[in-house]
Structures
1.
Amino acid sequence: MTLFIGLISGTSVDAVDAVLCDIQPDSKIQLLHSHSQPIPTKLQSELLAFGQSRYSGDAIDQLGQLDHQVGLLFAEAVEHLLSPTNYQPSDITAIGSHGQTVRHLPEAPYPFTLQIGDPSIIAAQTGITTVADFRRRDMAHGGQGAPFAPAFHQAFFSSDTDTRAVVNLGGIANVTLLSPNQPPIGFDTGPANTLMDQWISLHQQKSYDQDGQWASSGHIHSELLEKLLSDPYFSQTAPKSTGCEYFNMEWVKAKAGTIDLASLNAEDVQRTLLALTVRTVTDAIHQQPNVDAVYLCGGGAHNRFLAGELQKQLPRTQVQTSAALGISPDWVEAMTFAWFASKTLKQEPIHLNSITGANHNHVLGGVYFS
Ligand SMILES: Nc1ncnc2c1ncn2[C@@H]1O[C@H](COP(=O)(O)OP(=O)(O)OP(=O)(O)O)[C@@H](O)[C@H]1O
Ligand SMILES: [Mg+2]
C-alpha cells in the first residue's frame, strides 16, 4: 500500500475535504477513508470577506494570520481523517494540499493565483511530507493555473469507447470533455453554486439551497437570464478559468443593469441563477458532438433540481453522478490532490497543457518535507 492524503477547501469555503487514498505505482487509486472538516464560522466569514477585499486592518497582516489558521485547520483535518483508522502519520507517504484560494487572476497584467494554508505548518503539525502550491507552477509556464480536475477525470473517468463529459459543480463549474484517444478538453464554464449560495444567504439566511427547492418554486426571468448570458466570459474560447472574484453579487447587479433585483420575486432570481448554470454547462457539453454520458461531481451533484434541469436539456444523454464510475462525487477534488502529490514525488508531469494552456506538461507543486 502507498498511502496519500488529499486536502482541499474549495471556492465555496464550505468545508475542508480530506481523503486517504491508496495509490498504486500504476496509478490505480482507491479511496480508503474520507472526512469533511467544518470551517469555524468566524474563520469562514473572515476568509469570505478577505476574498472580497473587505480587510480588517492591515491586509498583509491579515493574509499572514489566515495563512497560518488555514494551515492549522488543514492539519486538524488530517488528524480527524486518521484517528478513526489504524493508520499513523508515519504510514502516509505524503499529503497533497490544494489550500484555500483567496484570489485567482489569470488575466491580470502579471497573472497570479493565491492559495493559502501554510504547507510548512501542515508538515510540522502532522509530521507528514506535504506537497502544495500546485497552481502557481502551471501559471509560471503560461497556463491558467486552473481547472486541474480534468487531469484526474481523464485518468480515472475516460473510456476507450465512449465520449464522456464530467461536470464539477463546486462554487464554480468546470466541464471536461473526454473522447476516446484524444487529449481532454476542460475549462471553467462560470458559476455553479456560488451565486445561488450568495442569493439564498441574503434572502433566507441559509448557506445553500437544499436540493434546489427554493429555485424550483420560482420562474426564470428571461430578460435577466439573457443579460447575465451576455457576459463575454461565456463566449470566450478555452483555455479559460475564473473565480468568485469575478462571478459574485456585484457582477449580477452590474449585468442586471436597469432591472432592479429588489423588485423581482427573490425565488425567481434564484431560479434564473440556476438556469444560468444549466445553460452555460450544457453549452459547454454541446461543444463536443455525440457525448454518450454525463457525470456530475462536486457539491452541486446533490442538487436534485439542478441535476433534473441538466437532464432535461440533454434529453439524449444520461446524466448521473461520478458514483456510477465508482468514485463518490464528494471526494473527486480531494482525491485529485492526493494523486497529484504522488505524481510530484515521482517527478512526473501532470497532463494539463491541453486544459490550462501551459506551454508543456510540467511537474507541479512544491515539496515540504516533514
Ligand atoms: N443537497 C444539496 N443541494 C443543493 N446544493 C448542494 C447540496 N449539497 C451541496 N450543495 C452545494 O455544493 C456546494 C459545495 O460544493 P463543493 O464542496 O463541491 O464546492 P467547492 O468546495 O466550492 O468546490 P470548488 O473549488 O470546485 O468550487 C455548496 O455550497 C452548495 O451550494
Ligand atoms: Mg467544498
2.
Amino acid sequence: MSGPGTGALAGRCALITGGASGLGLAVAQAFRVEGAALVLLDLDPAAEARAQELGNAIAVKGSVTRKADIVRAYDAAEARFGPVDICVANAGVSQNAPTLSVTEEEWQRVIDINLTGTFLTAQEAGRRMIAQGGGSLLLMASMYGVVAAPERIGYCASKAAVAMMAKALSCEWARDKVRVNAIAPGYVRTALLDDLAARGRLDLDRLKARTPMGRLVEADEVARMAVFLASDASSAVTGQVMGVDGGWSAYGYV
Ligand SMILES: NC(=O)c1ccc[n+]([C@@H]2O[C@H](COP(=O)([O-])OP(=O)(O)OC[C@H]3O[C@@H](n4cnc5c(N)ncnc54)[C@H](O)[C@@H]3O)[C@@H](O)[C@H]2O)c1
C-alpha cells in the first residue's frame, strides 16, 4: 500500500460523492495528500468550504439520486481539471429501525440513495472512463453488505447490492481498463455513527468489545484503502470487496 504523500495519485482527478463529511471527506483529504485534484458532489452546501480548505478542489451541490446532478458534476470536473480518473461512489445514509416499523417511504429513501444513487454514479463513471481508456471506480459498501445485523433491513440489502454491483461491473468493464472495487468498512466514528449513538441506537462500548481489534475503525484507515484501490499499486485488483473492519466480519466465536 502506498505511504502518505508519495504522490501515488499525482496528476489524477477524482470525483467523490458525499465528500463534505465523514468517510468521503477523509478520502478527499487522503487523495489530496497523494496529489489528486478533486470534485466533491454533495447535497450539503458545506462541501464548498471543504473544497476551499482542501485546495485544488471544487464542490458541486447536488444529489446522487438525480442523474442530471451527477452529469453536471462530471462536466464541471472535466472543464476544470480534465478527465476524471477516479470515482468514489460514497454517498449513503443509514437506516436503523425494527423492520416492522419501516414505512415504504423510509425503505425507498435508503434504496434511492444507497443503491440507485450508487448505480447512477457508477453508470456515468463507467461511460466516461470507457470513453477515455480506463479508470478506477470505488463503491462504498459496508460490512453490513457482507454480514448481517437486525433492524437495518434497507441498509443491509442496499449495501449487499452495492458489493455485488462492484463485482458485476468489474466483469463487464475489465477489458475497457475500468477497475471496480468496493470497500466494506466496519464501525467508523463519523457523523453517521454519532447520530445513531446519540439516538440510543448504538452502544459504542459493546461495538468495540465485539471487534477483534477492540476498537472502532478510523476514517483515515478507510481512506488509505481507497488510496490503494485508486492507485496503480492495485493495478490487477478488480471486483473485490475489501473489508476494513478490525476483524468484525471474520469473527464467528462467542
Ligand atoms: N460511518 C460508518 O461507520 C460506516 C460504516 C460502513 C459504511 N459506511 C458508508 O460510508 C459512506 C459515508 O458514510 P459516513 O459515515 O461518512 O456518513 P456521513 O453522514 O458522515 O456523510 C455522508 C455524506 O453524504 C452526503 N449525502 C447524503 N445523501 C446524499 C445524496 N443523496 N447526494 C449527495 N450527497 C449525499 C451527506 O451530505 C454527507 O456529506 C456511506 O455510504 C455509509 O453507508 C459508513
3.
Amino acid sequence: MTHILQLDASARPGLAGIDEHGSLSRRLTQRFVSGWQARQPGATVTHRDVGGTPPSFIDQRWIQAAFTPPERREPWMAEVLAESDRLIDELTAADVVVIGAPLYNFGMPAALKAWVDLVVRMGRTVDFDPSRPDDPFTPLLADRPRHAIILSSRGGAGFEPGGALAHMNHLEPGLATALEFIGITRIHRVSIEHQEEGGERLAASLAAAERRVDGLIAQLSELYQASREATVPA
Ligand SMILES: Cc1cc2nc3c(=O)[nH]c(=O)nc-3n(C[C@H](O)[C@H](O)[C@H](O)COP(=O)(O)O)c2cc1C
C-alpha cells in the first residue's frame, strides 16, 4: 500500500470554505489525501504541519554536525541532527509527497525552506564524491519512483509557467530543484490564483485546481496499482 507524506506550509491553520480565514493550499492537500484514501483504503498518511509548527533553522552547530562523517561524530552532534533525521525518515518512507505551499513574497514560506534545509543532507539524501568533479552528486532518494505534488495558492495571477509573472515565481521552481537534487524527479504542480481578488475568478481557479487534483489522484493511483500488480508474482 502507498504511504503519503502530507506537508502543509500555510501559516493559516483552517480550511478555506469551512473555517474563517482558512487556507486554500490546505484545502487542496486535504482533498488530495482524502481522495487518495477513498481510492486506496489501506493507504497510510503522515502529516507534517510545518506552517503550524515550523522546523528549526539550521545553524553553525548543525552544519558542523552534518558535515562530520558519522563515525567521527560526537554525542552532541546526534542531538543536533535528530530533527533532521526524523524529517528525512518521514520523507524516505513516503511514496507520494503532497506539499501545500502558499506563495509568500515570490517564494516558498520560510517554514518550508527550513524543512528543505533539514532534508537536503549529505550522506542521507544526497551523496558527494569529490573524485568525480564532473558529476559529484548522487541523489539517494532515486531508489524508488516517488512523486511530489506541489499544491499552491497565490493572491495574484499570472505566476503559472508561461504567465506574465512567471519569472517572479520562485516557489515551484525552487522547491522542484531541491527535490530533484535528492532524487524526487516526478513533480506535479497545481495552483489556485486570484485569492486577493476573490469572487468569480477565485471560484473558477479553485474549481479548476480541484479538478486537476482529482485527475492526479486517478492518474497516480492507477500508476501505483499497475506497478504493484507488476511486482506481485503470478
Ligand atoms: C506574507 C505573505 C506574502 C504573500 N506574498 C504573495 C506574493 O508574493 N504573490 C502573491 O500572488 N500572493 C502573495 N500572498 C498571498 C498568498 O499567496 C495567498 O493569500 C494564498 O492564498 C495563501 O495561501 P493559503 O490560502 O494556503 O494560506 C502573500 C500572502 C502572505 C501572507
